[in-house]
């Protein structure tokens, strides 16, 4: 496909192996192959986390990894992942998120069809420990008053760099802060 590549930026810290494998496998299982996975381990204290990340990075050249020496929390770790990105688009995932198989295909299609687009977001759902979808969030068209983007949010990398990425000190609301500054 001639569609733009997407960097998936994931900050990680002590992620349980089960969830980490599911996240990584959901990215590897994308129907759109034009992606890079930018992982930033935020100085996990559980040695199996960086070990698992290294093994996946060795399996696929699209996986990029930085192991942070000091814990800086989600904003700094997200920025470390973003620093690895060289695709024109960056999507942010949490370390326990999953992507539907066509998620990046839809992102690539929409970004290719709308050259002036700078922010794209999608509906989302929560999956319980049994793999059952439980809490769908169907989002409306963008509204400057509601400003509900959540996950999966994808941004033009150039605008993320213009606004300085995520701001430390806004942990817990870093995604909301970022979307406000971008828009």
Explained architecture:
This protein has 183 residues and is of the alpha/beta class. The protein contains six helices and six strands; from the N terminus they run βαβαβαβαββαα. The chain has helices at 17-28, 48-59, 73-83, 103-113, 157-162, 174-182, and strands spanning 6-12, 35-41, 63-67, 89-92, 119-121, 153-156. Strands 3-2-1-4-6-5 form a six-stranded mixed β-sheet, with helices on both faces. Strand 2 (35-41), helix 2 (48-59) and strand 3 form a beta-alpha-beta unit. The longest helix has 12 residues, at 17-28. The radius of gyration is 16 Å and the shape is globular. The model has no long low-confidence stretch (mean pLDDT 88).
Task: Describe the structure concisely for a colleague.
This protein is α/β, with parallel strands linked by helices. Helix content is 33%, strand content 16%. Helix 1 runs parallel beside helix 2.
